[in-house]
Amino acid sequence: MAEKFNRPDGRELTELRETKAKVGVVPNADGSAMFQQGKTIAIAAVYGPKKMHPQHQQDPRTGQLRCEYNMLSFSVSDRIRPGRNRRAMEISEITKWALEPVLMLDKYPGQVVDVHINIIQADAGTRCAGINAAAMALAHAGIPMKEMVSSISIGKLDKTMVVDLTKEEEDYHEGEGPTDIPISMTPSGKVTHMQLDGKIGVKQLQEAVDMAKVACQNILEIQKKALKDFIEGDKK
Question: H or E segment at 112?
Fold first, then answer.
C-alpha cells in the first residue's frame, strides 16, 4: 500500500485553502472584486467599456479586452522590483486569453475594457486568484458574459496529485519534484486556459483536469455568492 502523502498545511489532497471573495472593493472603478485563497490576495478593477485610444487601435467590428497583472513590491517577504516585468506581461496576456472567450465584446465596437489586477499578498496561485477576481469584477461592471470563469492550480508533488498549491508545495523537491498546472474553466466545462510547468503523463493530466473541474465548481459558488451578496446589500 502506498504511503499516505501529508500536505505541509494538513489539508486533504483535493481541499482548497480558505477562500474568500468580495465585490465592489474599489469605489471609483466600473466593477471590482477581491479574491483571497489562503494567503494570496488579488484585487481586480474594471474600467470601461470606453473609447479605445489611440484611435488606430480601434476595431470597428468588436470591443477589446486589455488586462494588466501586477504583483506589488510588498506582496512577498522578499521585496520585488516595482513595475511590470516579463512575468507580469506574460500573466497579463494569459488572463486575457482566459477571460476573452466568455465576454460578449461584439456589443462594444471600437471600445475597450481595461482590467487591472493587483496582487497585494502572494503565496502561490496568484494568476488563478487574479483571474477569479477579474471575472467577478467584469460581472460586477455589467459586461455581458456567456458564463463565469473560475481558475485553480492543480499540482503533482512527486507522484501525488493535489489541489491549490501553496508556495511551500511549489518548492517541493523530493522524488520527481513539483509540477504546477494552472487551469481556468467555465461552468459548462470549457477550458479557457491551461499551463504546465513540470512533467506529467497523459493519464495524470486528465486526472488534473477532472480535479480542476470539481475545484472550479466550488470556486464558482464562492464567486456567485459574492456577487449575490453585493446585489442584496445594494438593495438595502
Answer: strand 111-121
| Helix, strand, or coil (residue 90) | helix
Helices then strands, counting H and E runs in the chain, come out as 4, 9
As a whole number of angstroms, the distance between CA 73 and CA 77 comes to: 9
Query: What is the Cα–Cα distance from 83 to 206, expressed in whole angstroms?
Result: 37
Q: Which of 128, 167, 152 is nearest to 214 (CA)?
A: 152
- Per-domain residue ranges for the chain? 19-235
The per-residue DSSP string of 151-193 comes to: EEEEEEETTEEEES--HHHHT--STT-EEEEEEEE-TT--EEE
Give the three cell numbers for residue 55: 484611435
pTM for the predicted model, two decimal places: 0.93
Cα-trace Rg, the chain: 18
Query: Using an 8 Å Cβ cutoff, are 124 and 197 in contact?
Result: no
Q: Are 70 and 88 in contact (CB under 8 A)?
A: yes
Residue 86 phi, psi dihedral angles, 5° rounding: -60, -40
- Class assignment of domain 19-235? alpha beta
Per-residue pLDDT of the chain (236 residues), as tens digits, is 345 678 889 999 999 999 999 999 999 999 999 999 999 999 999 999 999 888 888 888 999 999 999 988 766 655 556 566 888 999 999 999 999 999 999 999 999 999 999 999 999 999 999 999 999 999 999 999 999 999 999 999 888 899 999 999 888 777 677 889 999 999 999 999 999 988 888 999 999 999 999 999 999 999 999 999 998 886 65
